[in-house]
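It is worth pausing here to work through a concrete case rather than discussing structure prediction in the abstract. The textbook approach is simple: state the sequence, then state the predicted structure, then interpret. We follow exactly that order.
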Amino acid sequence: MALPSIQLSDVRRDEPSPAEQQRPAQPGVNKIVVYEQADFEGLSREFTSDVPDLHELDFGDCISSLQVVGQPWIAYTAPKYEGDAYALEEGEYRTVEKNKAFSALRLVHHDLADPQITLYEEPDYAGQSKVVTEETNLTYGYFNDRVSSHVVQRGVWLLYKHPARGGWYHIAWPGERLPDYKPQLGFHNCLSHLRPLAPGRPAVTARILWGQRKVEDERDVLIDEIVGVNATDLEQTFTTCSSREYVTTTLQSFRFSNATSLRAGLSFTLAVEAANVFTVEKGRSESTTRRDRVEVLLPAKIPPCTQLTIHVVSKEATISVPVELTISQNERSKTELGEYRCVSGRTISTKYTMKPAPPPGGEQAPAPAPSTLGH
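Step two, the predicted structure:
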């Protein structure tokens, strides 16, 4: 749960321009849904772009729970992005610490993928410096309570007064240059913990490039042999069943490129065919085994004095296919390639072979050439 940030007017920030305030977020990716009661009850509103004054939309000072989808939002206790500020990352908030107090909402449009901030020991960016690119507890090192100025290169950062995300925090925006904590924030030599805001989960769509399919291996595997002998002078029924059922196995896997930008836990689906939708989860579920039932028809009769042998053969094939991933995040899209691999034995065929059987009475008939029928 977010902690308050006292936002002072004399700290330079990258405030949203009028064009930014009117720019809508990509539908279905960045939004916030706010509710007047806890646990997502009561009246609600959904926003996809900045709201400088919730009172103008008849929803000021009434928010008690909310849901964030995509990029983070900053909620303010006064209109026009003034007052205390609360950072809200993607997720569900059944209650909010500052209940019924939010008057403005700001969507974080900035790129949060590669954050960086430089901390300085002295005012005016002097003294020893420290470059930080990830969440850091300064009490574990030599820079705790020693920071007096900073420059934000990339990302949006939360600077905390106490370790473990404790106490008051300041929100530092991209491009922010704060030359002296003491007169501007009253924060001189107080910084103990900092972290970048996390980007929202991207939306991923996958397209299998079947035209570039490669068959890496293909072989026939004998899965069953059925033998029937008719040693009489009359045609005989081979079996009371006209078919037999077999279980086939398909092993599917997905491999990400070494340079993938997707984080562990993100999932998407691959529509391999109408009845086969493969769900991929980065770092967890990147392979699956599927079992199908295949019915094989059997001949009904065996000719007189004939031995019938049926070989049931599975054609196992290993294929690989490139997959184009379109990753949409924060109103931007990019593509990268992965690979779908499949080891399947779903194609089953039968091979019928007939040869003479000893006639009645045990006399061996002349052996004609074997007859083979494929099915």
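Step three, interpretation. The CA atoms of residues 176 and 321 lie 46 Å apart. The helical segments are 18-22, 181-185.
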